[in-house]
Amino acid sequence: MLEKEVIQSIGFRNIIENDEVVGFQFKVRLPYYRGIFLSQLRPGTLCVDDMRFEREDLVWNINGKDHTYEEMKSDMETHWAVTDPAVIKVRLKGGLKQGFHDLTLGFCFTSSYMPPIMQDALDPDKENVIFMPEFGHHVNKRRLLIV
Hints:
Shape: globular
Distance between the termini: 22 Å
CATH topology: Immunoglobulin-like
Radius of gyration: 15 Å
Number of helices: 2
Structural class: mainly beta
CATH class: Mainly Beta
Largest sheet: 5 strands, antiparallel
């Protein structure tokens, strides 16, 4: 079951590969009544405490498959459903320390019924003057605990 918040608390953990912590991950849900294709997604940057990760540093796992920002820009076949959270993966040697962390992630997406001039003005990292989550603009913040 998905939580109301876009950044989900379930799934926030360090990533371990070959007995070594290589990064961390968390889940986000799509706050839209319809799904979107990956080419519609406009990821922003991720801030965790005082660290900043550019959209090129993030891997979006959707439908069990990893996608980079460059891959998503032209992917018109992979569909992100409203009921399935995406897993955001971040490479960070040693991962995150145990304790609370403040996450901020912005993203937006295009909608067929929105004029392109309005969509071009959206910055995934900044709240718009007019809050428009239903039109594909979201800056999300959440404090999560990693153990």
